[in-house]
Amino acid sequence: MKTKRPRSFYVHSNGIKVSIIEIDNMGKIGESFKREVGKNTGKFVSNLMFGDKHSTPYRRVDAERHARAQEAALERQKDIDMNLLDGAVLDNVDEVLQTPIPQSEKELFDLMSIWGAQLANSSWDFDTKEGNIRAQYPDAVLEKFKQSMLIARTIAPSNPMMSYYEEILAKATKRRKRAKTKELRIALIGIGLFALCVLIIAIFGD
Predict the structure, then answer these.
(1) How far is CA 149 from the centre of its chain?
(2) Is the pLDDT of residue 83 over 60?
(3) Range of the structural domain that residue 25 is part of
(4) Are 89 and 137 in contact, with CB atoms under 8 Å apart?
(5) Residues 117, 44: one domain?
(6) Which is higher by pLDDT, 42 or 149?
(7) Is residue 90 part of a domain?
(8) Residues forming a β-bridge with 171
(9) What is the CA radius of gyration of the chain?
(10) Is residue 107 located within the same domain as residue 44?
């Protein structure tokens, strides 16, 4: 009696023969696909809820490396910008310092009107690197204006513009001094507040 061999194929309703092995493999692929979809969905939900702290480690490392690279690039660009600014400011400073002060009243007051207008609209900021670079220009103008005032007081003391220029010089000098001592004032205020807190604790602590 012949032994029945198990069927190695399945006949679909449309008459197409499909291998049972293929059906089995298709089932395994389907299960694998479901598991992968489930895993990726879980990662998406986890990242959505908790951010990169719960993401795949290599993704976090890559993101951190990218962030560090961007930060380094920004710092390099900032240094380049500061060097360009410094060069431009120094060129203008040299131009001001090399400008000869006229000895005639008209030419002197014409030049002082230009420098006076610049000083009237100048401000100083010594709190940042950029501020210190920019401050070099009004410093140069202020110094040349002082020299011009010395000559103007000698050759044209009665000129009606003298009082105006004296006022510009006084205000500019005051603004610069205030900006220069800003850090010192902040430090002194901080020390005063600390001393006050210590005194209050000492009085009411008991």
Answers:
(1) 40
(2) yes
(3) 19-48
(4) yes
(5) no
(6) 149
(7) no
(8) none
(9) 40
(10) no
Closest to 144 in 3D by CA, of 103, 176, 99: 99
Rounded alpha-carbon distances, angstroms, from residue 80 to 76, 87, 107, 116, 129: 6, 11, 39, 32, 13
The letter for the amino acid at 41 is: T
187 occurs within a structural domain: yes
Q: Which of 152, 63, 159 is nearest to 115 (CA)?
A: 152
Q: Please count the structural domains in the chain.
A: 2
Task: Give yes or no for residue 48 having a pLDDT over 60.
Answer: no
62 located within any domain: no
Determine the angle formed by the axes of helices 105-120 and 162-180, rounding to 10 degrees: 40
Q: Is residue 195 part of a domain?
A: yes
Same domain, 118 and 191: yes
**CA–CA dist 10, 47 (Å, integer):** 44
Residue 31 CB burial class (10 angstroms; 0-12, 13-18, ≥19): exposed
